[in-house]
Description:
The structure holds two protein chains of two kinds.
Chain A: H1 7-17, H2 23-43, E1 51-54, E2 57-60, H3 66-85, H4 92-110, H5 114-133, H6 140-169, H7 182-194, H8 203-207, H9 213-219, H10 223-235, H11 240-258, H12 262-283, H13 286-317, H14 333-344, H15 352-366, H16 370-396, H17 410-428, H18 431-436, H19 440-446, H20 451-457, H21 459-478, E3 488-490, H22 495-547, H23 555-566, H24 573-591
Helix pairs in contact in A: 1-2, 1-4, 2-3, 3-4, 3-13, 3-17, 4-5, 4-10, 5-6, 6-7, 7-10, 9-13, 10-12, 10-13, 11-12, 11-16, 12-13, 12-15, 12-16, 13-14, 13-15, 13-17, 14-16, 14-17, 15-17, 16-21, 20-21, 22-23, 22-24
Chain B: H1 2-11, H2 17-36, H3 58-81, E1 82-84
Amino acid sequence: MMLSLPPAFYFIFAAIILPFLPKRLRNIIVVGLPLGVFYVISQLSDSLTFTLPFLNIDLSLLRIDKLSKAFGYIFCLSSFAAFVFGYHIKKPYEFMAALLYIGSALGVVFAGDLLSLYLFWEVMAIGSAVLIFMGTGKHASKAGYRYLLVHIFGGLVLLAGIILYAVQTGSLAFNGFETVTMATSLILVGFLINAAAVPFSTWLPDAYPESTVMGGVILSAYTSKTAVYTLIRGFAGWEILIAIGCLMAIYGIIYALLENDIRRVLAYSIVNQVGFMVCAVGIGSKLALAGAVAHAFCHIIYKGLLWMSAGAVIHQTGKHRFTDLGGLYKAMPFTLLFGFIGALAIAAPFTSGFVSKTLIIIATEKAHLFVPWLILEGTSAAVFIIAGIKFPYFIFFGENKSVKSKEAPKTMLIAMGILASLCIYIGCFPKKLYDLLPYSDIVLKTLPSQFYEIYIHHFSHVVVRMQLLFFSILLFFLFLPLFKKTNTLSLDFDWVYRKGGRFLYGCLDKTLNGLNSFIDHLVVKKGVKTCADFSQQAPAILTWAVLKPLYLDNEKAKEIVYKRVKNNHLSVSLPALAFLAMLTYFIYHQLF
Amino acid sequence: MTKTTDKKRNQGYFNRETTKKMLWRYLWIGCLLSLGLEFFVHRKSHFGAQGIDGMFGFFAVLGFASCLLFILLAKLLGLVVKKSEDYYDA
Lengths: 592, 90
């Protein structure tokens, strides 16, 4: 019975009970839990379902197939390593937010219908936002708010799409969408916002680097990859995704080159790598889809490793800018070693990126898509020198900035060691990974999976990859001054809502408050005063208006009338006389 | 003499000129080796018989040129989008 529960439940339940557990037990449980859930997922059979009644709808929380299982496995593996990395954390709240976030990501992956997917989607946004709010930097809370607003907006777009789709088709089933309608387009935009697709990409590099050290590692894995999962499930073969993916790949590279914050460089390279996956989804062939899953799998591992090495450096030195770091190789040799393996794993032979990227590249070749192929090959060389060479070079080598530091704590090194081993293992023996993929039979038929076949029999592939990497490294060192960092930030698409928001606020402030003060001036300051003056002087004005002809507009007489009215000395006779005069005039006018 | 030895020791292995020269040499060897090995492997284009990707040294040029292109693009874009760090706080 226990084994048929949705994997999300274990994480969410653990998040709820965590603060009530004894301190020593907490960290052991969070480390052990992902391994347990990994086993549970491996035991789930395809026929299993789990439904929960909600508002007269049966939510389907368990859909088991190779696609959902592959994402389930990697989510558990990466969360295990992340919790080992954060083992030093004493307070339970960060773990609670992380468990909620990972649990809901698993919920999305195993959701059988659009509504349950949406519910987990929103919980995921909340869990991840909490991880950003917990960041200690001065920009963390503002970045957290922006992150939350973007995801609330994305969630609403998705919800609008789901409601329209349900109304039009009468179904909440989440399978491949075939026709372009308003409903499916809104759902696609909702997914693409979470995939950090251009121009909705800036929330990722804006918010993730502001998170805590462990939070950054965790955030790097789930939101964008659940989005990739949903795109594979719903939008395989939608050709627009090829263009979007290529754009993401180029955008990620260019902005990573401009960036000075070490984790922000990694964040931009996530956008670049997710671009590969989105492009593969757009191609839509079985090989491409398997490639997208394989690359998501490997990317979570090596990018997690890179985030860990960046996190360990920040944890030990308190510095996060390239311009403040340098020459740490003596103080943190193991962090360097593991970080370097993570860097190599982006594309180098004998590492995971080599085998997973090859799948996508071959899929573009088989689809005869030359331009996307060229962009992916070109950006894969560029991302290797940015996240792979530049990242470790400026932190661990380069100019020695005399930063005082010690090697990272043992638990952090163990976590990095686990992921580094996985990077190399998958790179040398990818069959285990290929077996987990959807359409694994086609993958195994098309690509070599044994060490000998990959590296000896298909040596030509290794040679071209070595050319690509060696010559990009050569360029890096030949043009090293061009890579020099500056203490600047780069304007991005978020300028629209960060400056645009202020501009809108300014416009509304000027217009509405201007109108307000004008009315205030007109009514309160002028109008009321005029009324008050008038009511005070009304008898005098009226009296004088009537008496004016009698006194032949004599100024002295006018002064006397006004003075008497002001001093309240006006004899009754004058207004009475005025009234009488007015009455006489009226009668005279009526009669003659 | 003692001063020079002390300086060398403080400099660290990777900051020494001799190490840098050695690493440069390895890098050039790596580049040439990866190019040279292409003579010994059979490779063909994936985009037609006369596809550009089948040409000798195509991937070496691609690696070098694409990175150069992206750096130049980034430098160019940087002229417009680079702002001081307190740009949004001001």
